[in-house]
Amino acid sequence: MDVTETIKALPKVVLHDHLDGGLRPETIIELAAQTGYELPATDPQELGAWFSQAANSGSLVRYLETFGHTVAVMQTVEGLRRVAREMVEDHAADGAVYVESRWAPEQHVAGGLSLQEAFDAVQQGIDEGVAAVASRGGSIRVGQLVTAMRHADRWDEIADLALANRDRGAVGFDIAGAENGFPPNRFPQVWRKLNDAGFPVTIHAGEADGIESISQAVHLGQALRIGHGVRITQDIEGFGTDNPRLGRVANWVRDNQIALEVCPCSNLQTDAALDADGNPLRELPQHPVSGLRDLDFAVTINTDNRLMSATSMSHEMARLVQEANWTFDDLRDVTLAAAWSAFIHHDERHELGERIIAQYEQVLGSQVLKRSL
């Protein structure tokens, strides 16, 4: 078995994957045909290539524009169910055992669905996908991260939707979209409400904005995880040298092991990862993920948008091994970090971690040392 096949067989935990960023091109074409929606291409291979090329612009704004097409075909119960079901099946086929799928219900009501109807459609699709995986002898657990769009004014309403469905598939809350100019302090009451309810929060931060964005996410938003977070290096003087000095925000994030939901391929596409002079990093070996791992940050590896970035968890991991000299031990450790940062209860995290260790031992054919859970 070669490295690529070995990595595909390893268990994976996915904490940062957008539902509307992972559609199969064939599905987009078929759903678009049902409503007469016009696409840039109607051949699956050509459409997939179009998304990848459009997302490779080096601009987060341009990257986000590609979602207009995927969101357009996710405005019906049928469309949402199918996309959610296929998301589960695709992740399971790639070795995922636990997934948190994030999406913004407010973007899927143009066809007349209510927020609750949209949520229910996605949950039904997830349930169908989990059942399909089980029927083939597999096992995967999937939760919804209910997301509010940063530029809109519906944070309160979306937070209420998440809380109303916390025992029906919603595992956490997020804000996404244009980060720069739309900080968490726009609606501080939302974070108080979620914290008072004991509901987990992850916030996109440190992707298109800097330390102040991360600071607001972890202090005002009380986020347990940071979506991307790669610009935390701006608060680490001498990052990449033998004598790095962490600032207050970086120390807080590391001391409290607030997980960084790093998405290497996406970060390189959107210019999220910067060097000390603020220049975009273009090659994976330059990406700060390895340095952050070496500094004992709670690094996790994720896909962000599988369609736009033409990626998967196996692809992300294989690139780290082949281009950044990561080992299987490194992959195991970030997977365990993701398991420990999942929005499930303590005992469930422990069980997930034990499953990961057992599957690593089975795949690699040698004893994998257990790290403390």
UniProtKB/TrEMBL annotation:
Q: Which GO terms describe its molecular function?
A: hydrolase activity
Q: Which principal EC class is assigned to this enzyme?
A: hydrolase
Keyword Transferase on entry: no
Per its UniProt record, the required cofactor names are:
Zn(2+)
Domain Adenosine deaminase: from-to ranges:
11-358
Keyword tags: Hydrolase, Metal-binding, Zinc
Superkingdom per UniProt: Bacteria
The enzyme's E.C. designation: 3.5.4.4
On whether rRNA-binding is a keyword of this UniProt record, the answer is no
Q: Which InterPro entries match?
A: A_deaminase_dom, Ado/ade_deaminase, Metal_Hydrolase
- Which NCBIfam families does the record match to this protein? aden_deam, PRK09358.1-2
PANTHER family named in the record: ADENOSINE DEAMINASE
Write out the similarity annotation. Answer: Belongs to the metallo-dependent hydrolases superfamily. Adenosine and AMP deaminases family.
Q: What is this protein called?
A: adenosine deaminase
Q: Which organism is it from?
A: Populibacterium corticicola
